[in-house]
Amino acid sequence: MRQIVLDTETTGLEVELEHRIIEIGCVELVNRRLTGRTFHRYVNPQRDIDEGALEVHGVTREQLAQEPTFADVHHELLDFVQGAELVIHNAPFDLAFLEAELARSGSERRISDLCTVLDSLALARQMHPGQRNSLDALCKRYSVDNSRRDFHGALLDARLLAEVYLAMTGGQALLILSGESDPLYARPRSEAPSASLAAAPIVVIAANEEEIAAHEHVLALLDAASAGKTLWRTS
User: Fold this and answer.
1) Which residues make beta-bridge pairs with 40?
2) What is the sign, positive or negative, of the torsion defined by CA atoms of 5, 8, 13, 18?
3) Element (H, E) at 140
4) Per-residue b/e over 138-175, b at no fewer than 16 CB within 10 Å?
5) Could you tell me if 11 and 19 are in contact, meaning their C-beta atoms sit under 8 angstroms apart?
6) 165, 183, 181: which is closest to 173 by C-alpha?
7) If you ran DSSP here, which 8-state letter would residue 59 be given?
8) What is the pLDDT of residues 131-178, one digit of tens each?
9) Edge-to-edge strands, sheet with 116-119
10) Closest CA to 87 of 109, 113, 114, 115
11) What is the CATH number of domain 2-178?
């Protein structure tokens, strides 16, 4: 399964007031593994940037003056995301801007025709009702390091969201990837620390009804998020 975690930065919040995209960041996942492939472009919005937006991302119009327009890069973007499931935090916001930019560029292709979409904010609200589910809040909840996030940035935020999404929906892929750089995994098998497990007592703590119900709820959410592609319901 191929997924693209996507984020944008814009000149303002209202697509109806013809605010524009200034940055696009994408991170590729295949079968829940980070592949290392990314798409990242700054875009000349050809308009001023609201003060509120500037405080969020810190990118000025002057910095974007020599960047390509969205019309210049949209073919490359669409080729990168085509056929994937997009994972976007607060998807309606980014999709509205992307579709407006595509229409303005004269493109006949639309994101909705090329991709399916998973809104990670909606998923987080299902899993953590009544709690804060911003990207920063989720990074804290799932121990994802966001210390470099002084300003919002499309590629940085897409990378953070990829880690959060994997942790939120299972986390196994993160453990596999992180293990490759763990000194323990780099040692020859004979050098790995050993322990006598035979002498250790095995304590089995059975889940109560409330815990089982909560577990089933999370499994149902994961099943819905993967469009029924999970394996535990088929065995």
Assistant:
1) 25
2) negative
3) helix 135-141
4) bbebeebebeeeeebbbbbbbbbbbbbbbbbbeeebbe
5) yes
6) 165
7) -
8) 999 999 999 999 999 888 877 899 999 999 999 999 999 854 444 343
9) 33-42, 21-30, 2-10, 85-88, 116-119
10) 115
11) 3.30.420.10
Q: Name the amino acid, one letter, at 119.
A: D
Question: Between β-strands 2-10 and 21-30, what pairing exists: parallel, antiparallel or unpaired?
Answer: antiparallel
Q: What is the pTM of this model?
A: 0.73
Return the bridge partners of 33, or none: 30
Which member of 40, 128, 152, 215 is catalytic? 152
What DSSP designation does 68 have? P
Whether 57 is catalytic: no
Place of tokens 């953070």: 160
Q: Which amino acid is at 165?
A: Y
Closest Cα partner for 119 from 139, 94, 151? 94
